[in-house]
Amino acid sequence: MLTLRFHVIHGWKTHSILCSALLAALALCGGMSARTCDAQAKPAGRPPGVAPLPQVTSPRLYVIDCGTLVYNRPEDYQLTREEVADTNMSVPCFLVLHPKGILLFDTGLSDRLVGRPLWENVDEGYGQIKFMTLRGALADIGVTPADITYLAISHSHWDHVGNANDYVGSTWLTQKAERDFMFGPGADKAHLALYDALAHAHQVVFEGDHDVFGDGTVILKFTPGHTPGHQSLYVKLAHTGGVVIAGDLYHYAEERALHRMPKEEETTGTPASRDMIERFLKEKNAQLWIGHSTAFFKNAIKSPGWYD
Ligand SMILES: [Zn+2]
Asked: Which of 17, 159, 230, 248 lies deepest, with the highest CB count within 10 Å?
């Protein structure tokens, strides 16, 4: 039932269900023939009522609320509770509008969690709270899934791919190592359904850094360790300056300040990736945004406001 409800409310691809089941119930189709209703529910271009797509002459970056993780085990990150100001984690998604196209970076917690009680959605010790859908947040900006040129994920853990299947009409920009990890024998079978449609998306597969629009302003930085193909995102903004969105290179800001990381990552690429990003930040005079840090998220300009 939960799945059906989600599709009826949020799925553009289920207009026939929406039209017959929901709109009929709301009497919005009352007096219309089924054909008339169907024509109104399936516009040829943009959906009706969506704000105009913003036009930009330089990159614009949006920080979108894609949920919150209620969590109280900072020990998993080799930090004590006394050392961490807030053990909970924000879960942002990021949208970049560029004159040559639109990039969605991470898709957050699943939209289907909205309105559901916390006890229903505890996964691996993380309670998931979600107040708004990614799809709705994008609509507030004036962006529909069909407008998004590229989808990239920092990595394939469930709190970053919750809505990935909604964006398979975009070109998926992926590290080869992460794609192999996602669909190989080591795949997380419990969460594969969150992103399995990406297997059939149009893809650009690369190893190392990737210049998204070819002008050096938006670059996926290869930062392996947390997962085999983890990547961070550099965005060069005209007024704000350079920003690196860390992904899960760090979770808590205190990890960076106190030089801590999950024990199991000490023997992965994480230490070298962190060193590389620190050098890159200096070289570009850029700031580091740690998405899971509630201190970052609390102070960030949130969508539909933006950075440029
Ligand atoms: Zn994460």
From this structure: 230
The pLDDT value given to residue 256: 97
- How far apart are the CA of 13 and the centre of ligand 1, in A? 28
Q: What angle do CA 86, 157, 94 make, to 5 degrees?
A: 70
Q: What is the pTM for the complete model shown?
A: 0.85
Q: Using CA atoms, how far apart are residues 242 and 258, in angstroms rounded to an integer?
A: 24
DSSP string over 185-197: TT--TTTGGGTGG
58 and 97 Cβ atoms separated by less than 8 Å: no
Report residue 286's pLDDT band, with 50, 70 and 90 as the boundaries: very high
CA of 16 to the centre of ligand 1 (A): 35
Token pair, residue 224, equals 């392996």
Tens digit of each residue's pLDDT (9 = 90 or more) over 31-47: 333 333 333 333 456 88
Where residue 88 falls among pLDDT bands split at 50, 70, 90? very high
- Ligand 1 mean position to 247 CA, how many Å? 7
In sequence order, what DSSP letters do the residues of 5-49 get, joined into one string?
HHHHHH-GGGHHHIIIIIIHHTTTTTTS-HHHHHHHHS-SSSPTT
Task: Read off the pLDDT of residues 168-178 as tens digits, 9 standing for 90 and up.
Answer: 999 999 999 99
Distance (Å) from CA 159 to ligand 1 centroid: 5
CA 218 to chain centre: 16
- Give the Å distance between the CA of 292 and the centre of ligand 1: 7
Residues 278, 68 contacting (CB under 8 angstroms)? no
CB neighbours of 121 closer than 8 A, spacing ≥ 6? 113, 127, 128, 129
